[in-house]
Amino acid sequence: MWSTSGCEVITTTDENTIDEIHDLALNIITYVGCSVSLLTQIIAVTVFTCVGLLCSIVAFVLHYFYTSVFVWMLVEGLHLYSKVVQVFGTEKSRLIYYCGFGWGVPLILVTISATADWRGYGTQRSCWLSTKDGTIWAFVGPAVAIIVRGQVVGALSSLKWFGQGPSWSPVVTVSQSASFKNALVQDCRLVTYQA
Predict the structure, then answer these.
(1) Phi/psi of residue 185, each to 5°?
(2) Domains recognised in the chain with CATH numbers
(3) Helix or strand (DSSP H, E) at 17
(4) TM segments (predicted)?
């Protein structure tokens, strides 16, 4: 049984009772939530219907972050491949290169694309790359290349993992295999943490 001291019943039905404090809290949550929702909808409509500099900037930022996602997939694939080829290595020294590659390459690609064809950023219909001018290939081209590269790296890693790689590949011993599995689990945790 709960205490009724300090509570004043406002509404009661057969199923529930609402006191003054809870009614006030529900009203505040409702008004704040609806205000934030309305504000973000106004911003979204303004950005996505406005064809101009703002829309082009949104397209540039989207292009950069989507390209970064694919480049980071490539970095993860290369990292896993290096774990198969060279099980014991220094991870901290590679982290600087990974971050530089993962954030720097997309910045270079997107900057070159925007410099070459800024009008292709933002269209009459959306704040994305133009398909009419071919600007979309500044995203699709690298993405497809990275996907293909990822498939090749995955195939090579699988061949090395199962001991059927090219003659220049080292044979993975039982202790190295255990180290690889431990490193793979740690990498999966890191990827999960980053997401």
Answers:
(1) -65, -40
(2) 9-47 (no CATH), 51-194 (1.20.1070.10)
(3) strand 17-19
(4) 42-75, 95-116, 136-159
Position 7 scores a pLDDT of: 64
Q: Quick one: tokens of 60?
A: 């540039």
pLDDT at 174: 47
Give the pTM: 0.59
Taking 70 as the pLDDT cut, the residues of the chain under it are 1-12, 14-17, 48-51, 86-92, 164-195
Contact 50, 122 (CB under 8 A): no
How far, in whole angstroms, is CA 187 from its chain's centroid?
16
Tokens coding 99: 């971050």
- Could you tell me the two tokens for 160? 């090395």
**Which of 56, 65, 67, 71 lies closest to 114, judged by CA?**
56
Q: Which two tokens stand for residue 114?
A: 């925007």
Q: Whole-angstrom Cα distance, residue 125 to residue 133?
A: 14
